[in-house]
Amino acid sequence: MRLIAVRVGAVEPMRFGTSVPKHGPIPGDSPGPGDAPLKLCHLAFSLGVLTVAPALPGQLPTSETRFPPQFFSTSALPDSPDTTPDGGAGGAFGQVEPSAYADRYLTRLSLGGSVSTLGTGGSLATNLPYRIDLRFVGNFFDFNWKMTKSGFYVVVNTELANTGVLADYYPWKSLRISPGFLYYNTDRIRGDVQAQPGATFTINNVNYASQDSNPVYGTGRLQLRGTGFMAMAGWGHYVSRSEKRWSYPFAAGVAFIDTPSATFSLQGNVCNAQGQDCQPAATFPEFQSNLAAQVATWNNDVRPFHVYPIVEGGVTYTFSYRR
């Protein structure tokens, strides 16, 4: 605070018995000797007040001191879903990203259907932080193909049943990398054969004929079972990260399952290529030897499929279930 000194001249003390009029001098009276110093004091006091008063506001605390700026900074306030990146309100200045895409997690759920080499399946997925979705999948397929080939009536049944879980990571736009684990898998292919009259066939490069009176029949199986890790990549969100609720993801990858195994057994009577020397297949030594060699060849052929290829396409629908 600035102080202003006012120098006031010495005032002579008033003599006892001298009175000062309350309402000014009486007309006709001349000023007494003590009136001049008193008027000088009044004038000096008034000048001091008029001079000091304008300086007082400058000495008071400012609004910045009483209310620090950080108390009103928007960075100190919690994030609001209605606030745009440029500081404006979403409703007034533009559309904002959904909260599920920005920070919140476990707020969206997607239901999907797909067709893949694992079967016809469904998926349930939700959003996690850091551009990751958690997805549970299940597939099932059961279908019979019936055909006639080389004098045999053939029925091929494909039964696929498996479930797994994947983490979908999106490093760039809709590009997706999906590690996962196949924790249930009973996939298998079964083939049943029944020889028709006059049927012939080849086992391990040796020709045989079925006896018409007791035709050959049998069953073959290819087991594609086993649990293991999955590695996939694709395009499209399983959990939509925009206002669009429908998406159409595509994926390709592999599942690491048990080594596939093939088995094949035949019953009935087997004859040589000329239709002679017919014997039961189960007790025909030469035939059983060739059959074992043929099955071993088939197992070598399917061994690489322990890295099981996956190609998948589907559709998903996303909705919000928690805010």
Number of strands: 16
Q: Roughly what fraction of the amino acids lie in strands?
A: 35-45%
Uncertain spans, ≥5 residues at pLDDT below 50? 1-30, 49-101
Largest sheet: 8 strands, antiparallel, barrel
- Average of per-residue pLDDT values: 78
Order of helices and strands: HHHHHEEEEEEEEEEEEEEEHE
Overall 3D shape: elongated
Query: Based on helices, strands and strand pairing, what is the structural class?
Result: alpha+beta
Portion of residues within helices:
10-25%
CATH architectural designation of the domain at 104-320: Beta Barrel
Keywords:
single chain, alpha+beta, Porin, 4-stranded antiparallel sheet, 6 helices, 16% helix, elongated
List the helices and strands and how they pair.
Elements (H helix, E strand, L loop, with lengths): L34 H18 L3 H4 L3 H4 L23 H4 L5 H4 L5 E9 L2 E10 L3 E18 L2 E21 L2 E11 L2 E8 L4 E4 L2 E5 L6 E7 L4 E8 L10 E2 L2 E7 L4 E7 L1 E4 L6 E2 L4 H18 L4 E14 L3
Antiparallel strand pairs: 1-2, 1-16, 2-3, 3-4, 4-5, 4-6, 5-10, 6-9, 7-8, 8-14, 9-13, 10-12, 11-16, 12-16, 14-15
